[in-house]
Amino acid sequence: MIELRSLRKEYAGEVPLEDVNAVINDGDIISVIGPSGVGKSTLLRCINMLERPTSGQIIVNGEDITASGCDLKKVRRKMGMVFQSFNLFGHLSVIENIMLPQIDLLHKSRQDAYDEGMRLLKEVGLTDKAYNYPDEISGGQKQRVAIARTLALDPDVILLDEPTSALDPTMVGEVLAVIRKLARMGKTMMIVTHEMNFARAIANRVFYLDEGGIYEEGTPEEIFEHPKKEKTRRFIRKLKALELEIMDRAFDFPGAQSEIEEFCNRNRISHRMTNHISLVFEEAVWHLLVPEMERPDIKVEIEYSEEKEAVTFTVLYGGEYYDLTQSEDRLSMSVIKSAAGDIVYEKLTEGTRKNKVKMNILP
Ligand SMILES: Nc1ncnc2c1ncn2[C@@H]1O[C@H](COP(=O)(O)OP(=O)(O)O)[C@@H](O)[C@H]1O
Ligand SMILES: [Mg+2]
Fold first, then answer.
1. Which CATH superfamily is domain 240-361 in?
2. Is the pLDDT score of 298 beyond 90?
3. 2-228 under CATH 3.40.50.300, yes or no
4. Which of 200, 158, 197, 164 minimizes the C-alpha distance to 31?
5. pTM across the whole model
6. What tens digit of pLDDT does each residue of 146-179 get?
7. How many Å apart are CA 247 and CA 210, to the nearest integer?
8. % of the chain beyond a pLDDT of 70
């Protein structure tokens, strides 16, 4: 069990952590979420004393590890850390990377360290990369090696700081699969991640960090479905709504389509609806509006409601009053009508964009 008592961390001119209090039970899997810069990494680094808290206490199984004279090497053996950037030694092979901390910190023989290293490489599916060097393997493989290296010390607690953020999307899955395996082994874990589906599925508790502390905590259901406090609500709402602004004819259209796809994946929106959203975006924005506007001034809001399993698609655009649904482009309009219903045009009197078209994407 780890207890954080009035934990505070100050940097010159900045106090990311003002007052953090929490009890982390054995076997807990905690997802830590929150806007960037709120102190998620700082919290993880403080918990295993890579960073000394300015004040407060961290009690691990009854022992105050912030007390002077505490054996920090012992603390770090019990608390493994996995970083976004892997931190492997480039001049050592994969197996040597995993052997080194066992020899240094656990004083194992080379043979024992090797045997354990090979066993762990098997766990993470990389037996055949044992003699490769880090720059000969992919990012996802590097992160799996880094996880195996952490496991080699048999820690009670594993802290993971955005373990998939530096990876190509194609490699995220293989790393998440290995982390899920750790969870099933019953390791206590704290994970900072932007993979919200994952954060939700793997954890039994979620900490939302803001305003210098744990602003709200709850079960994944509570935090992702029924957040109670204002800032949590806003953060969660943003995850469920995508906003795109098109202010230029040279707008990155394929880039926007891939943002839409990513948004749909994140919210587990069906393929059919995803396809409908892409079609509406392409026809309404790309074929109907952009060619009409010398200087495009368009904002698209795509919002997903899990409760209703519904997606609303809203387009706001500048210029004179113009109802795009009255367009003479029959083809575009018929495509839109095959993908969306309840299409309503509205003249706005407030704000800079005077036109609004809202519709419900068809299931
Ligand atoms: N070593 C440091 N020195 C000074 N300021 C730091 C240091 N590390 C982090 N910070 C600041 O503390 C705040 C929290 O940082 P961080 O914990 O990295 O946030 P997060 O991981 O939530 O994005 C940021 O404003 C950051 O600039
Ligand atoms: Mg961080």
1. Histidine kinase-like ATPase, C-terminal domain (3.30.565.10)
2. yes
3. yes
4. 200
5. 0.78
6. 999 999 999 999 999 999 988 887 888 899 999 9
7. 32
8. 100
- Mutation test of ligand 1: which of 42, 52, 165 has the most ligand atoms closer than 8 Å to its C-beta? 42
Q: Are 31 and 202 in contact (CB under 8 A)?
A: yes
The pLDDT tens digits for 265-291 are 878 889 999 999 999 999 999 999 999
Q: Given the CA of residue 9, which atom of ligand 1 is nearest to it?
A: 12
Neighbour-count burial for 313-338, b at 16+ CB within 10 Å, e otherwise: bbbbbbbeebebeebeeeebbebbee
Distance from residue 62's CA to the centre of ligand 2 (Å): 28
For atom 24 of ligand 1, which residue has the closest CA?
37
**Which atom of ligand 1 has the smallest separation from the CA of 162?**
21
Atom of ligand 1 nearest to the CA of 51: 1
Ligand 1 centroid, distance to 167 Cα (angstroms): 21
Closest-lying ligand 1 atom to the alpha carbon of residue 36: 23
Residues with CB under 6 A from ligand 1: 11, 14, 16, 36-42
Q: Where does the pLDDT of residue 335 fall: very low under 50, low under 70, confident under 90, or very high at 90 and above?
A: very high
Residue 359 CA to ligand 2 centre (angstroms): 38
Written as one string, the DSSP assignment of 89-149 is -TTS-HHHHHHHHHHHHH---HHHHHHHHHHHHHHTT-GGGTTS-GGGS-HHHHHHHHHHH
pLDDT band at residue 19 under the 50/70/90 scheme:
very high
CA 94 to ligand 1 centroid distance, Å: 31
Given this model, what pLDDT does residue 74 score?
A: 85
Per domain, the residue ranges of the chain are 2-228, 240-361
Question: Looking at ligand 1, which residue's alpha carbon is closest to its atom 10?
Answer: 11
- Give the whole-angstrom CA distance, residue 181 versus residue 178: 5
The pair of three-digit structure tokens given for residue 119, joined into one six-digit string: 């066993």
- The ligand 1 atom at the shortest distance from the C-alpha of residue 192 is 21
Average pLDDT of 170-192? Answer: 91
Residue nearest to atom 17 of ligand 1 (CA): 39
Mean pLDDT of the chain: 93
